[in-house]
Design a protein that fits this description.
298 residues, 9-stranded mixed sheet
């Protein structure tokens, strides 16, 4: 029997300046004893430990704080959260975001009907402004059941927030390359989509986002530079579902460039399409040379 109805999970690194907004938004939710706030601190060097200890001592909401000794990146933190969650559902909320009013009540109301639907992985909500305006208007009203690979069809091919069944997530861990800290989340989300799992997406803003200068979204170029093999894994995963020669050729070429940047050419043995990877190799090598010049010029 789960201790809580919901786990709100926040991975954080040196975000003592933004965490109070999320904490205060959690305080403002109803059902404060129906959820736990699981914080995985990725070896922060700021005042995060002291800040969270103060909140734990106050006791207004249940907080499970885990501080990692070594910085390992968000994907590893997600893997750890899936192991530590004390509920049936995991709601991932980044440390620079906070909840819209009534989000927890909405989640508790909408997760009940999907609990025993084997093909529904969880529910999803939009990100938007504090006025409740979504960053992009979806192409549906109410809700739609769709896999992660179908999001473009419904106008939700943007950052959203999802609530996942923990029992399913435990079968889909992130592969993070040794020495790197990041692999794009879509590698796991699309693997679940290929296995037929859908998310029930709601046309409702559940999370308020104000991207920070040190966030993953704004630092995507540096992410690729620091995590070439994480992106090689991403491009290889695309070869499992992309249709059309040109798309597959481009993904294979990008994978080749990334493994060359990562110095792990043997990874190509794991390609999901050996033929197209072979013919794309010269083009991937050209991308690799261009990327070296781009990295050095920045």
């Amino acid at each position: 029997m789960s201790e809580y109805k919901l786990t709100v999970f926040t991975p954080t690194y040196n975000r003592a300046y933004s965490l109070p907004r999320l904490y205060n938004s959690l305080l403002g939710q109803c059902h404060s004893r129906d959820f736990e706030w699981l914080i995985i601190d990725d070896a922060s060097t700021d005042e995060t430990p002291e800040l969270v200890k103060k909140w734990i001592d106050t006791g207004n909401i249940d907080i499970n704080y885990i501080r990692l000794e070594k910085n390992g990146g968000k994907p590893r933190a997600i893997n750890e959260a899936v192991k530590k969650a004390k509920s049936q559902f995991l709601f991932i909320v980044d440390s620079d975001d906070y909840l819209a009013d009534g989000t927890i009540s909405f989640i508790l109301d909408k997760t009940g009907p999907i609990l025993h639907k084997n093909d529904i992985l969880g529910i999803g909500m939009l990100q938007g402004t504090k006025d409740g305006i979504p960053f992009k208007k979806p192409k549906f009203t109410g809700y739609v059941d769709a896999t992660n690979l179908q999001r473009n069809e419904y106008g939700i091919d943007i950052d959203c927030n999802e609530v996942y069944k923990v029992s399913i997530l435990r079968s889909y861990t992130f592969e993070v390359w040794p020495g790197e800290n990041f692999t794009p989340e879509e590698t796991v989300l699309n693997a679940m989509a290929l296995d037929g799992y859908k998310i029930r997406w709601y046309a409702r803003v559940g999370v308020i986002s104000e991207y920070q200068s040190d966030g993953l979204t704004k630092g995507s170029w540096n992410l690729q530079k620091r995590n070439p093999m994480g992106y090689a894994i991403l491009y290889n995963s695309k070869l499992r579902y992309q249709r059309g020669f040109l798309l597959r050729f481009k993904s294979a070429a990008q994978m080749v460039a990334q493994v060359l940047l990562g110095g792990s050419l043997s990874y190509l043995k794991r390609s999901n399409d050996h033929f197209i990877t072979t013919i794309a190799f010269p083009y991937g090598f050209a991308i690799y040379l261009r990327r070296l010049w781009q990295y050095r010029s920045r």
